[in-house]
Amino acid sequence: MKNQVQKIQTLNELIHSCDSYRKISAGKRIILPTGDGMAIGFLSSSEIPLELSIQLHHKLRPYNQDKSPTEEIGVLIGLASGPVFTVADLNNVENIWGPGIILARRLMDVDDNGHILIAENLA
After folding, report:
1. 48-81: b or e for each residue (b if 16 or more CB lie within 10 Å)?
2. CATH classification code of 2-118
3. What is the spatial distance between Cα 66 and Cα 90, in angstroms, rounded to a whole number?
4. Prediction pTM value
């Protein structure tokens, strides 16, 4: 458990350090924690998710280079575009939902570490 928490914290730090993440204002992105990862919805540009994915992979390679397999951080990335809606949950926190998110999740589910899968309509 402690190892997994550390990996999530490190992943968050790596994402925050990416230029493409920092250049989009907080109001133009919605982050949905998923326990062992996250879904990030960008409400402004369809290029930003790909830029972020590439930048993250470039940061993960050197990070993982000297790590043991149990210490390495792997990511599954699925990118899609489509209708996405912001909805408030029971705590009145904005979440994202819709066919665009569902498709991205399906892509991610068939992905493996080190790849970025992109839906045809976004490619």
Report:
1. bbbbbbebbeebbeeebeeeeeeeebebbbbbbb
2. 3.30.70.1230
3. 43
4. 0.85
